[in-house]
Design a protein that fits this description.
With 169 residues, the chain is mainly alpha-helical. It folds into 2 domains: 88 residues; 46 residues, no CATH class. Helix content is 70%, strand content 0%. One of its GO terms (molecular function) is protein transmembrane transporter activity. One of its GO terms (biological process) is protein transport by the Tat complex. It is a single-pass membrane protein.
Length: 169
Amino acid sequence: MIDLGLTKLAVIGVVALVVIGPEKLPKVARMAGTLYGRAQRYLNEVKSEVTREIELEELRNLKKEVQDAAQNIKADVENSIAQNMSEVENAFSESTYDGTPSYEPVSFGHVTTEDLSRKAREFRRKKLVRNSAIPNWYKQRHGGKLHVTSGAARVARFRPRGPTNSSFF
């Protein structure tokens, strides 16, 4: 930096007053101050931009490291799963003595839509019988459910009541 003391500034001011003149000196000083402020703002913007770029580069490097670590972990997990699956398959295939599998594969090829509809009809009929086994007058007298009640309605029904003349203030 330039080493400017009070005496040097005074000498510069006197020379400027003589060269420029007393009429134009305030305008030139204002212009010099404005240019000096612009230069400082420009330098601060450049510094902040360089700092942002450095931080962004550090974040990119960190992201790359994290992705590499994640890929390594994923590969390790996939390898261990494949190894464990092969061990289980080997143990399962070696568990039979004659080499044939000891289980019967389940197939649902024989199930038809008629069977499914018949099962659904039976289920609905049994549910109707279960629900209608108790008459409504008995349910009303002994507090049984007559219809489906929502959760909010149940909460409101069993919420303890406060004093009736309470104010909200």
